[in-house]
Each structure stands twice: as structure tokens, then as C-alpha cells.
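2024-03-11 09:14:02 INFO queue: dequeued item Peptidase S54 rhomboid domain-containing protein, len=201
2024-03-11 09:14:02 INFO validating residues
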Amino acid sequence: MLKLGVPPPVTTTLVVVNILVFAYGILSNSQNVMISQYGFVPNGLFKDGYLEDSILRLFTSMFIHAGIAHIAFNMFALAYMGGFAERAIGKPKYIALYLLAGLGGALFHGVVASYALGNGDSVLIGASGAISGILGISAAMGDIRGYYWFVIQILFVFIGSIASLSIAFAAHVGGFITGLVLTKLLIELERSKRNPYRGLT
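2024-03-11 09:14:37 INFO prediction written
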């Protein structure tokens, strides 16, 4: 008799929400409007000073995707790796790190786009930064697949650049580093709580 495990609830919810947002945009023919109104524009934050609007866009941009291939790749990576990360650190921390990695990825991309590449007026959308953060969580918790999937993402970005697809490489890198570093810090905090005298002489 086949025994199926319980799907990770937070990861499943994130996948469903992303798909519903994408489906709404397509079915209501409002996809382009959603992208322009809720996508993150780096120059709006770093050069034009639209702080409140940019903060909102940093969050909403994580749940908007450009097309089928974009959302399919992201949701596959999230569904494949999210369960391990969610179980490893617990639901509240998982949600927090997912959002923080998305923010970290978008901000890192924004700095690079606005100050290094000079294309800060381009709109950033997608869950890639947050999902890269999930890969960082998995890697920090000892799941080598986190690093493998990050390499696959880099290859995907490279292929996209050859095919003239607009892929925000810096958002992937920033999200992965955010997830990895924050998870390492959480691990150290947990160790310190268990052994408050560790390292004292």
C-alpha cells in the first residue's frame, strides 16, 4: 500500500498563491498592468526616492511572473526544495526567511541595476530571489541539493542571456546569499541558546 506524505503546508500555499496570481493576470487580461503597477523598479527606490511605493513593490513583485516558463521553473524549484527547508527550520522562520530572501534578492539586484549596469528603470518581477533563499536555507542545513539547484539557476541565467531573455541574475545571487547567511546565523543562535557558555574560557 502506497503511503503518501503530507505536503508541506507553507510551501504548498506559496505555490498556490503564485499560480493564482498568475492565472488571475492571464484570465483577466491584466498581466501587463499588474507588472507595471506592482513590479519593483530599482530607480524608484535608489534614485527617485519613492520609498513607500517601492517597499510595497518589493513584496508584491515576488508574486508576479512574466509567463508560463517563468512561473513553471520557479514553482518547480520551490516545490522540490521548499519542503526540506520548511521542515528543517519550522514554518514561522521559513516564511520569514522566504520573504527576507526575496527582499534581499530584489535589493541586491536593484543596487547592481541602478549603480553598475545602468538599467534601473527595468521592472523586476518573480519569486526567484525568494526561492534562491530557500536554496540557501537548504544548503545551510546540509542539503547539497541547495547548491546543485543554485548552479542550475546560474546555468539557466546563462542560457537566458544567450537567448536574449531578461533574467535578473543578481536577484538569484542576492536571494541565495541572504537565505544562506540568515540560516547560518539562526543555527549559531540556536547553538548559543543550548550552550550559553560555549567558547568561554
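2024-03-11 09:14:37 INFO annotate: The CA atoms of residues 156 and 167 lie 9 Å apart.
2024-03-11 09:14:38 INFO item closed
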